């Protein structure tokens, strides 16, 4: 076994051969990032953090693991998915499950009263991976949260605006499904759900986007012991979705709902929100959906979930893809969040209300990649420094190529040369592929203090000999050509 | 106990009160990053990755944990510092200990033959933390490695050049200590160390920068069973350090050393390197130091370690700090690396020689911070949108402030407003502190389709009323003022 491998290091040192059955791979549900995928991911992070900064966001970074007690009791039924570190003496720790709880822990231990913070980092869940749908065990979250006491619904509206700006920048069509925990709780109470069952019934309702109503009802009645008529009443309420004003009117028109205090408070919030979303031009992207529940326990007010809505396909279009092939329809929600006013208070006396959004970067990545956006060719180097020469005495001019590259690096120019003492010219041109400029050194030219500077990206091969440039002017000439 | 906390989630849900003895902190040896520290860290990452890109580097990102077997037998005596994940069923995993082994694993499982890759990420070591010296359990490494078969010492020289460029960009004086594993091994062999003791004696020599020779000798003789006369012979050799040519000449002039095949091969490498470092203008930063051993087992050729060398203090300067107060003298090496030609081959048949450098970002951060470089004030928002008005009927113009902010966001401008329905003007000016521009809304002006645009950073308070600007031109006018 490997359990005691830290004790017999000396044997390991003497046995550098790989174990016969050693699998060379990343752990299940994890992956490496390199090449076009990595470039697309970096671009995605850049786009999102630009939006965050536009709204006054400041970055926070927290450790990848937290004290186990910090995470305890925050994730309801999902707690079983938390990765624990082995007890090797000292504190018991677990890998972070999201970025929200670490943020709340940070708020609780600092003097911060108000902050807009963003955090782009990996989180960990021991879930069954589903690579095609972008569901991994190690994946990225990209969070923006507004913490502090403000007038009602103003920060909530800004969070929704941020969602719209991010997906506009990514050119992804979306619908933001909205609901309010108070309305949902009030609705369960009016339907007859006992107080102690509200969270577990809420979890069941949350599955409605993955399961038909009949299955959800079965879970409520058979597993969770809800009377059938209560479940049926819930079933009627939660099938309502539409624009905010319509759903507010539906609730107000109901015989029972408007009398509940939670619902009254929730409706007041939603009326304020409707006005703010109009001002921020967000209204046409939202759907007030009474079936939206969100699994996590810590939400207390507005909750939301973003789904990708591909552009409608024209009627005449014969190339319709089946829904099964479309990653957008497979990935589920691509961002989600809500208001959590009590989470920070769970760590002590200080209570700081918060509202925030978490973007599922890996799912968004999956959609963008399916759209072909990782085909970006990014120029990695500006100049390739080559030697030209023939005959027995040609020494490859390695030291001279190094000196020219050094000069370019000093000027901030990205430059490479072939790591070979006597390279063939053909091999150097091949190594330079994709590089826009070449600098070609020859013994005669060097004696005259000159090199050849040549554009490489025009498919002219070696016929165009480029221009002779004094070595002292080379960096400036290169910069001119790169503009 | 917390061990079974995943099983009783329902009780956790019903008990949102914090445990009486719950400590709100990050785990030992870890920290949060926010504010000026975070901005300095981001700047540092940017500087380093700019240099890496200038040399044709491409980014790689790997999972934070690896299969435990991938890490086994790579770190010698330091293996005990590896963090293991708890066995929760499935694969046994450990947190990465460095970025080199994950890179080698990636090379072994892909078809890559040649690559310059960089990786900036956190690594994990269950070591005793020493915060003042920048030694943490979770800390950053920042690696650049060149993998592939090339002519000897050309990539090695480029790595040393990259070290110089990074520290030049950070304005940190350095010395790069160099040695060669083959020369060191040959030297041990000539001194009379049996082959099977060479690695463990090498580990002892590696401690010479932290311990006096007498203690190292004691470890060799008493703990590791080396005859005293062999230890003494080693002691004579390893006290030599100086410029490359001088140390080459010292070795060549020795009666015994030049006959050893390993030493011959190492000297050949060092002679090539000396010529290349001259061409790359690196020579005056390096010291060939025969006492440098490097603890890790996987090095096979050139090894190096970078120490911060503060600028010499002028004789007349009375303000000399004691060495104890100077973080530069406390942090130890701030970058280290070397050639490891056999590591990739440990994972299978494919052998890819590599050479690389790892920057200790947290130690470098500690030095820069002590120099006051986290005092950077970074403008986080460009414009603060405010409402001005009095009287009973003043409604705070919240929706109007939102509309103006929306317009600025649409133009890519960073804007905020106060999240209060009816804010006082004073409070808004206070909230706007540090923001260069203010947009002030008044009912009369809005009726005329105008707002006031005002510079806020000139200490003129509210006296300067700013200029009236048509709302439609606002974004353009703001952009002009931000230039």
Features:
homodimer; 483 residues; alpha+beta; BirA Bifunctional Protein, domain 2; Rossmann fold; 9-stranded mixed β-sheet; 17 strands; elongated; disordered N terminus
What's the arrangement of secondary structure elements?
The structure is a homodimer of 483-residue chains.
Chain A: H1 9-14, E1 33-34, H2 35-54, E2 58-61, E3 65-67, H3 68-71, E4 93-95, H4 100-109, E5 115-124, E6 138-147, H5 154-169, E7 174-180, H6 181-191, H7 198-205, H8 213-223, H9 228-237, E8 241-242, H10 244-253, H11 261-279, E9 286-289, E10 302-308, H12 327-330, E11 333-340, E12 354-360, H13 361-370, E13 383-387, H14 398-410, E14 415-417, H15 425-431, E15 437-441, H16 443-447, E16 450-455, E17 467-470, H17 474-482
Parallel strand pairs in A: 2-5, 7-9, 13-14, 13-15
Antiparallel strand pairs in A: 3-4, 5-6, 6-12, 7-10, 8-9, 10-11, 11-12, 15-16, 16-17
Helix pairs in contact in A: 2-5, 6-11, 8-9
Class inferred from helices and paired strands of chain A? alpha+beta
Straight-line N-to-C gap of chain A: 59 Å
- Domain count of chain A, please report it: 2
Biggest sheet of chain A, strands in spatial order?
Answer: 2-5-6-12-11-10-7-9-8
Chain-averaged pLDDT of chain A: 88
Shape of chain A: elongated
What's the level 1 CATH class of the largest domain in chain A?
A: Alpha Beta
Rounded to an integer in angstroms, the radius of gyration calculated over CA atoms of chain A is 30 Å
Tally of helical segments of chain A:
17
In the predicted model, the low-confidence regions of chain A spanning at least 5 consecutive residues are 1-16, 316-325
E-strand count of chain A: 17
The oligomeric status of these chains comes to: homodimer
Kindly report the greatest chain-chain contact and the residue count on each side.
A-B, 113 and 116 residues
Helix percent of chain A reads 25-40%
CATH homologous superfamily assignment of the largest domain in chain A:
Bira Bifunctional Protein, Domain 2
């Amino acid at each position: 076994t490997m359990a005691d491998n830290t004790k017999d290091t000396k044997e390991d040192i003497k046995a550098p051969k790989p174990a016969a059955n050693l699998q060379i791979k990343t752990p299940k549900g994890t992956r490496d990032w390199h090449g076009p995928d990595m470039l697309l991911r970096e671009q995605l992070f850049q786009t999102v953090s630009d939006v965050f900064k536009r709204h006054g966001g400041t970055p926070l970074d927290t450790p990848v693991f937290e004290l186990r007690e910090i995470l305890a009791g925050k994730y309801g039924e999902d707690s079983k998915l938390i990765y624990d570190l082995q007890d090797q003496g000292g504190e018991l720790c677990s890998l972070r499950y999201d970025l929200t709880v670490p943020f709340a822990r940070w708020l609780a231990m600092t003097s911060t009263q108000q902050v807009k913070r963003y955090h782009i980092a990996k989180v960990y869940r021991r879930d069954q991976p589903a690579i095609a749908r972008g569901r991994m065990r190690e994946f990225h979250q990209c969070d923006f949260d507004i913490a502090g006491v403000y007038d009602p619904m103003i920060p909530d509206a800004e969070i929704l605006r941020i969602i719209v700006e991010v997906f506009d920048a990514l050119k992804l069509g979306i619908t933001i499904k909205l609901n309010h925990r108070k309305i949902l709780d009030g609705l369960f109470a009016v339907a007859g759900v006992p107080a102690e069952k509200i969270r577990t019934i809420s979890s069941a309702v949350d599955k409605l986007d993955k399961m038909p109503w009949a299955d959800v009802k079965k879970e409520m009645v058979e597993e969770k012991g809800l009377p059938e008529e209560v479940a049926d009443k819930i079933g009627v309420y939660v099938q309502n979705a539409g624009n905010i004003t319509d759903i507010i009117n539906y609730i107000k028109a109901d015989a029972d709902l408007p009398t509940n205090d939670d619902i009254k408070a929730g409706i007041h919030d939603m009326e304020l929100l409707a006005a703010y979303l109009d001002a921020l031009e967000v209204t046409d992207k939202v759907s007030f959906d009474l079936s939206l529940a969100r699994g996590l326990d810590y939400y207390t007010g507005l909750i939301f979930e973003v789904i990708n809505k591909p552009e409608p396909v024209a009627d005449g279009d014969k190339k319709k893809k089946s829904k099964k092939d479309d990653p957008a329809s497979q990935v589920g929600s691509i961002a989600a969040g809500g208001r959590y006013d009590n989470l920070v208070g769970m760590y002590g006396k200080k209570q700081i209300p918060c509202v925030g959004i978490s973007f599922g970067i890996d799912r968004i990545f999956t959609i963008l990649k399916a759209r072909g956006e990782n085909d970006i060719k990014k120029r990695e180097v500006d100049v390739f420094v080559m030697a030209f020469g023939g005959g027995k005495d040609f020494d490859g001019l390695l030291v001279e190529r190094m000196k020219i590259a050094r000069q370019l690096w000093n000027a901030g120019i990205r430059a490479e040369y072939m790591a070979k003492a006597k390279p063939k010219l053909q091999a150097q041109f091949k190594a330079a592929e994709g590089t826009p400029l070449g600098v070609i050194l020859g013994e005669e030219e060097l004696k005259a203090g000159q090199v050849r500077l040549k554009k490489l990206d025009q498919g002219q091969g070696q016929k165009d000999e480029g221009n002779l440039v004094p070595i002292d002017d080379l960096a400036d000439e290169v910069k001119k050509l790169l503009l």
